[in-house]
Write a structure and sequence with these properties.
With 214 residues, the protein is of the alpha/beta class. Helices cover 23% and strands 19% of the residues. Helix 3 packs antiparallel against helix 4. The radius of gyration is 19 Å and the shape is globular.
Length: 214
Amino acid sequence: MWNTNLIFNPEGKLINRRRKLIPTWAEKLTWANGDSYGLEPVDTSFGKVGVLICGENTNTLARFSLLAQGEQIHIATYPPAWPFDRPNNKNWDLLEAIKIRAAAHSLEGKIFTIVSSGILDDDAIKFISNGDKEVMNILQSSPQPISAIFGPTGELVSEPLIGKEGIVSAEIDLSECIKWKQIHDITAGYNRFDIFKLKIIKKELKSIEIVEDL
């Protein structure tokens, strides 16, 4: 509803909240830009966890900012369908797009990526289409998303779930990240920080700023 990621720790405490930086395509009819507040990995008992929403996982600078802040486990959340080019009936292949993005982020950052996608079952499609056969056909024919876990070389380390509800699980070893970073670490030795600079303005955008004293 809010195009926002919430991360809770095992005790149920909210430890991070971040809004999607830029709404994608038709999302701009509903949502405004988010901000950089919360654009950071958070410490948990099992590693430093970062998260991005849908198309943000293609945003190179957003991804690099998380990696450079020490991200070890990335969560990529996706919608259940993305009917993109509707007039020409050429649907965006969400499944393949997710696989490419997740594998690339894991490979580039030498981290683990957990992909969590929403699902529309028959009841949900019926509710959303509300008797409109064209809408129902679009949703039923849209490529289904994938939920899965990818390792630091970009490979799948779990059985994927495609177009259905369930739990994806895998045992991960964060020392694998260190091993592969010794070869190719884009946040350290395999970069040129004398040439490239990335600055993040960590500020929560607010609709009003009250100044008590001038």
